[in-house]
Design goal:
By secondary structure, the chain is an alpha+beta fold. It has helices at about 5-15, 20-40, 65-80, 85-95, 100-105, 125-150, 175-200, 205-210, 225-235, 235-245; strands at about 45-50, 105-110, 115-125, 155-160. The chain has ten helices and four strands; from the N terminus they run ααβαααββαβαααα.
């Protein structure tokens, strides 16, 4: 026989396991907060922008073909910016204690579609070092591209600046705790229904009907004789009635 679960039974299960749900959700949220605030290292981000554009003369202020060429070169420039040719010089210039691969992973190069502006972003545990690396990468690339491709069309549009009170880009404790709260609650509700599904014990007449598929004709109630005797002693009417019954 196919079993159906009513909405009332779902709410009863949640109500029955409410303490478990609250504990698991609170533990997940608290753990996420502790890890975000006290375990994970704050990471700061700093960015600089370069412009891919030839210097214009007075006779020629705008050349569409030249702009299109610059746009096509941007993808190539994005690769060169993160190449060992540039990063090795950045490590040497700043005296960094990291490999080229580690520095490469901390740098991201992005450019908007049909835009000649390239954004170089660097993430590091030190906000000052992140700004220094971003500026150094832009300057080294500007020098090296002249020798690599024999072109001089890179200009630094804006340098990375260290603000008065820099804030980390990650971790984000509030977001992490919100995600942990939702995931913890979903996990707790799932665990509550799983425990209810695995619970095969018979607790009442309805459980017997579900297990055997037969109607319950009667039930035997457990009577505490000691409690019953005390109730009779404290009830004079019941004792008098009992005595009349025995006398007759």
């Amino acid at each position: 026989m196919e079993e159906t679960i009513s909405l009332k039974e779902l709410f009863q299960t949640i109500k029955k396991r409410l303490s478990l749900i609250i504990i698991i959700t609170a533990l997940a949220t608290a753990t996420s907060g502790i890890i975000s605030y006290f375990v994970l290292t704050p990471i700061y981000q700093s960015s600089t922008q370069i412009l891919i554009n030839q210097e214009k003369s007075d006779q020629q202020a705008y050349n569409p073909a030249e702009v299109q060429t610059n746009l096509q070169l941007i993808n190539t420039y994005n690769v060169i910016i993160k190449s060992p040719v540039v990063l090795d010089k950045v490590i040497s210039e700043l005296g960094l204690d990291m490999s080229v691969d580690d520095l490469n992973e901390s740098i991201s190069v992005l450019s908007e579609q049909d835009s000649q502006v390239v954004n170089i972003s660097v993430q590091n545990a030190s906000p000052q070092l992140a700004a220094d690396i971003a500026n150094s990468v832009a300057k080294v690339f500007q020098k090296e591209i002249v020798e690599i491709m024999n072109v001089n069309n890179v200009n630094i549009l804006s340098e990375a600046q260290l603000g008065e009170d820099p804030s980390p880009v990650k971790p984000k404790p509030a977001l992490n705790m919100a995600i942990a709260f939702v995931v913890g609650m979903m996990t707790a509700v799932g665990a509550a229904f799983l425990l209810e599904f695995l619970d095969n014990t018979i607790k009442n007449e309805q459980d017997i009907e579900k297990q055997l598929g037969l109607p319950v004709l009667g039930a035997i109630t457990r009577i505490d004789m000691e409690t019953e005797m005390k109730e009779q002693e404290n009830n004079p009417i019941a004792n008098r009635t009992r005595g009349e019954s025995l006398g007759s």
